[in-house]
Design a protein that fits this description.
Layout: H1 2-9, H2 11-34, H3 43-68, E1 72-76, H4 79-82, E2 90-94, H5 101-111, E3 119-123, H6 132-138, E4 142-144, H7 148-160, E5 170-173, H8 182-195, H9 208-217, E6 224-232, H10 240-244, E7 250-259, H11 267-291, E8 298-300, H12 306-332, H13 335-357
Parallel strand pairs: 1-7, 2-5, 2-6, 3-4, 3-5
Antiparallel strand pairs: 1-8, 6-7
Helix pairs in contact: 2-3, 2-12, 2-13, 3-5, 3-12, 7-9, 9-11
Transmembrane segments: 12-39, 311-331, 337-356
Domain Phospholipid/glycerol acyltransferase: 90-212
InterPro entries: Acyltransf_C, Plipid/glycerol_acylTrfase
Amino acid sequence: MAVLDYLKSLFILQLLMGFVFVVSGLIINFIQLCTCILWPINKQLYRKINCRLAYSLWSQLVMLLEWWSGTECTLYTDQATVDKFGKEHVITILNHNYEIDFLCGWTMCERFGILGSSKVLAKHELLKVPLIGWTWYFLEIVFCKRKWEEDRKTVFKGLSGLKDYPEYMWFLLYCEGTRFTETKHQISMQVAESKGLPKLKYHLLPRTKGFTTTLQCLQGTVTAVYDVTLNFKDNQTPTLLGIVKGKKYKADLSVRRFPVEDIPADEKECAIWLHKLYQEKDALQEFYKKEGKFPGPTITTRRRPWTLLNFLFWATLLLSPLINFACGVVVSGSPLLIIGFIIFLIIASIAIRRLIGVTEVKKTGSSYGNPEAKKEN
């Protein structure tokens, strides 16, 4: 075990995995670009192909969580709810407290066969991020600037276009609008007080517009809302960099299913329902802090081999020529080639580190609480 932990800590192995992810992602993005010719001919075929291409990329990140770091994900829910996973279109509400909360969500999507078709209401800045934003663009992900006056038309058009999606999808919403920090929490609770809303201890005040709009646009397609509350054992603070270094975490996810017919159709009543939901989520987090677990029965889902096999495929395809080239550079003895290769490694490591930085709490800000930013709710 000590030897395995040592190997996981080696920067060269981490760099090689990053190389596989980046290069395979560029190849996948190019193939996605080529599939655009199918859109006017057979839109549903285009969508099915891109779901599988996206799976090939996202599953590499899930592989890091499941196989490389060995992180465990335990569900707190009932069997009746689990039996519906992957068999219906749903909106998933997840708390936004951790750097890898999205990765835990993707892991659940993968285990129930809907990773490639998972959706999200993403901030517009991510569209410019290589691999992530580009892949999402081909998946018809809805990007918004979080300014309702500018987003209204784009969001309605994008969401309405998903009503005939051929694959079951989980549409992920971070209703808090941004990742939780103490500073943002203080500002959020000031807003709650000014609006006469109950204060939350572990969450930011939810922004209701995104949820009510998504529910309205996907009416007749979405059959349920999954409320997912995430926490980690032993007060762990997981990071994507920690996952890359092979650190193991223990994630607990409380999942509650709400049929859409039980959610008010009126926008104001729906907003009140969402605020109440977040009060319940806060109570769940308080219970977890005291007891070290969520209430209810536990279900442990098994990791599937496909994420590992997919990564091994790309690694075999891409690392063989890279290693042969590196050996050729060393054998040549050419100072110019060796220096050039070293510069390439430095640039590659910086690029990969910047991609990881997209998930980091300190580097993923928003205008939340900025007095000059327009309020959405």
